[in-house]
Every structure is written in C-alpha cells, then in structure tokens.
Amino acid sequence: MSLTNPVITIDGPAASGKSSVSREIAKRLSWNWVSTGAFYRGLAYVSMQEGTPSQDEKALAMLAKSDCWSVEMTSEKTAVIYQMKDVTAEINSEKTGSIASVISQYPEVRAALLQAQRDCSLQPPGLIAEGRDCGTVVFPEAILKVYLTARSEDRAKRRAKEQGLELESTVEEQKLRDERDASRASAPMQVPENALVIDTSSLGFEEVVARIESELKGRI
Predict the structure, then answer these.
(1) Maximal C-alpha separation, the chain
(2) 3-state secondary structure of 8
(3) Which alpha helices (DSSP H) does the chain contain, by range?
(4) Is residue 2 part of a domain?
(5) What is the pLDDT of residue 36?
C-alpha cells in the first residue's frame, strides 16, 4: 500500500509504554494519533452488548463492519462510539481486554477491521499508530517503525498500578495475552523489519521520547 500521509508506528506488548509515548510524539508533531487496539476492544465491547458469542468468528467479522459502532480519532484518545454514545471509558476493563485478546486471534476479524485502521492515515498531516501489528501489517510502509518492550515483571507492575489490580493475577493474565499475541496465526506480534527497538525497563518516559525524536530527524 502507498501512504497518502506519513505514518509512524509504535508496536509492542501490553504495558510497554506504547500509548503514553505515542500520544506524546503525536502531540509534539501535531499529528493524529490512533490506538489500533481500540478497534478490538471496541468490537469486544459491542459483541457483549449485542450478544455475539466470542467463539463465533464469522458473526464477529460481520459485527466488525456494522454501522452500530465506529472508531474515531481525537487528539487525546481513540474514541469508540456505540449506538451514538461514546463508550471509550467502558472498553478498558480487564474483561473487555480479555475478550479482545481472544477475538483478535481470528483472521476474519482482523481482515474485517484492517481497512478501517488503514483509513486513519488519510487525514493530514500525519499519523502516529500504536498497537501490536501496526508496523508489520497495518502500515508496512511507515516512515519509522518503533518497537517498545520491557521486562514482563515491569510491565505487569505498570498495568496493575494503572488499573488498580492485584499484581499476581495481572502477571498471569499478561502472560496469556502475550502468548496469544505472539502465537496467533494471523498477524502475530513481532518486531517489524528495520524497527527501532527500545527496551523501556530502565528508561524514563522522556528518555524514550527523546530516542524516537532523535531517530525522526531527517525523516520528516
């Protein structure tokens, strides 16, 4: 695919810092920002509301293209709209995340959501896209591909603190989610070719942002 506007992708496992770092880069560049994970969390939420079983791949793929919900970009969040109501705050529960992790395994679901994700790049001046497969599948021609990672324990601590969860259960759930993301048949989570890989375990937020900004010099 050829890009109408420049795209920077930031991929990585859960709680590696993708969302906060990508939002900050978008803010500094005055570019649009999208979290592709919101498409799967949104679909998971809508499937619960509509009574669509998480095991029914074909029904979920059809629901993915339903006009009863949509995903919209804003400067601060990727908004999920269901039945004309902003339900973004409701899609971030651990339950919704668990269902999203399951349904994101389905090739038909991923194919059904792919074009809507790519369409986010049509709005100028540029796009920062964060997720699991933005640099490998959604935007393989991005001008810069970043992969953030961190030690599993550090990521679990971050998620538990952010969501007020017990550390032990968060560690177990994260392991399952990482395994699903890395082993799924369609678009498994992996480091994009020629990506800038940053381990955020021992780096501060500003250090991570500075590394990416330095890499961007001369590219935009």
Answers:
(1) 50
(2) strand
(3) 18-29, 37-50, 57-64, 94-103, 107-118, 152-163, 167-183, 205-216
(4) no
(5) 96
Give the domain range for residue 169.
7-216
Residues in the chain: 220
SS (H, E, C) 23-53: HHHHHHHCCEEEECHHHHHHHHHHHHHHCCC
Question: Can you tell me the distance from the alpha carbon of 123 to that of 73, in angstroms, rounded to the nearest whole number?
Answer: 10
Which CATH number is 161's domain given?
3.40.50.300
User: In the chain, how many domains are there?
Assistant: 1
For 53, the token pair is 């079983």
Dihedral sign of CA atoms 30, 72, 55, 162 in order: positive
Give the span between the Cα atoms of 212 and 37, in whole angstroms: 21
**Is the pTM higher than 0.90?**
no
Q: Where are the alpha helices (DSSP H) in 56-151?
A: 57-64, 94-103, 107-118
- Give residue-wise pLDDT tens across range 135-161: 999 999 999 999 999 877 767 677 667
pLDDT tens digit string along 8-47? 999 998 878 899 999 999 999 999 999 999 999 999 999 9
